[in-house]
Each structure stands twice: as structure tokens, then as C-alpha cells.
Amino acid sequence: MPQSLFFAETQPKPAGAMLQSLVRNARERAEEVLARAESFHDADAREMMNRIAWSYERLARRLEMESSAAHEA
Fold first, then answer.
1. Given this model, what pLDDT does residue 16 score?
2. Residues with Cβ < 8 Å from 70, sequence gap 6 or more?
3. Which of 34, 21, 25, 26 is nearest to 59 (CA)?
4. How far apart are CA 9 and CA 13, in angstroms?
5. Are 64 and 27 a contacting pair, CB within 8 Å?
6. Distances in Å between the alpha carbon of 42 and those of 7, 36, 51, 54, 61?
7. pLDDT at 10 over 70
8. DSSP letters along 12-46, please?
9. What is the largest CA-CA distance in the chain?
10. pLDDT tens digits for 25-61?
11. Which end of the chain has fewer CB atoms surrounding its CB within 10 Å, N or C?
12. Could you tell me how far CA 61 lies from the centroid of its own chain?
């Protein structure tokens, strides 16, 4: 009986590769938020969006540190 693709065995990503993927995703989100912030006319809303983007960048930096630690381990 053929195995469903849903249950197909897949190799898990190494921790470092998974963390690097999360870093890229966080940075992409930061860029998207910054781009969207430019379209806001309200200064308070723009500032809030900039803070959100900065939070994504901080997350990316923390994930990079975790990725470096995973490679050293």
C-alpha cells in the first residue's frame, strides 16, 4: 500500500539551517513592515510600524546568535 505524502518521512532540517531560515524570514518581515510604514500618513502609526520592524530585526539578531552557538556546539 503506497504511503501518503502527508506521512512521508522527511529529514528534519539541522538546527543551524532552521535558525538561518527564521533569520531570513524575520528580516523579510522587517523590510515589509518598513515598506508599509512609508505609506502611512499618521506619524504615530509610522513610528509604531518602525518599532515593529526594529523588533523583527532584534529577533533576527538573536536568532543569528543562537545559530552561531548551534554551529559551535
1. 76
2. 15, 16, 19
3. 26
4. 13
5. no
6. 49, 12, 14, 18, 29
7. no
8. PPPHHHHHHHHHHHHHHHHHHHHHHHTT---HHHH
9. 61
10. 999 999 999 999 999 999 999 999 999 999 999 999 9
11. N
12. 10
**Cell digits for 49?**
510600524
Grid cell for residue 37: 510604514
Q: pTM for the full model?
A: 0.73
What is the 8-class DSSP label of residue 55? H
* Residue position matching grid coordinates 531570513: 24
Amino acid letter, residue 23: V
